[in-house]
Design goal:
about 140 residues
Length: about 140
């Protein structure tokens, strides 16, 4: 692919991201977080510690971003803030101890949270469509 083709692809990709709703972007971040945690687990199984560390570090970056973008005017944000702090603490422990059991436990919790947001996004989308039909 030449530079023009790559720039065209990047523009297309950015346009797709820019047209996503906040809920869709949140789910995209959670999907990436889960992907990185799965990759960390696979790397740990293969004793590929550099990939394991990089995957956990990227997961921590995503959690930090999610935490930094919380709107603290909402009570749910304070709860999410505490949860993100907990995930960060646990993932740092996982990284230091290379503990697969704890990694799987945290990954499961994050997947459940992601699924909760996915259901909320579906509900909001359905309510939006119902409201449009009434107009």
């Amino acid at each position: 692919m030449d530079i023009k083709g790559f720039q065209g692809y990047q523009g297309y990709k950015e346009q797709g991201i820019n047209s996503m709703s906040q809920g869709e972007l949140l789910l995209l971040l959670y999907d990436e977080l889960v992907k990185r945690l799965i990759r960390a687990g696979l790397a740990l199984d293969k004793a590929n510690y550099s990939l394991f560390d990089a995957s956990v570090d990227r997961s921590l970056d995503i959690i930090r971003y999610l935490d930094d973008t919380l709107d603290m005017h909402y009570p749910i944000s304070r709860n999410l803030n505490r949860l993100y702090d907990y995930f960060s603490f646990e993932l740092n422990r996982v990284k230091a101890g290379r503990n697969k059991t704890e990694l799987d436990r945290v990954k499961t919790m994050i997947m459940e949270l992601r699924d909760t947001f996915r259901e909320a996004e579906k509900t909001a989308e359905q309510e939006g469509l119902a409201a449009e039909e009434q107009v």
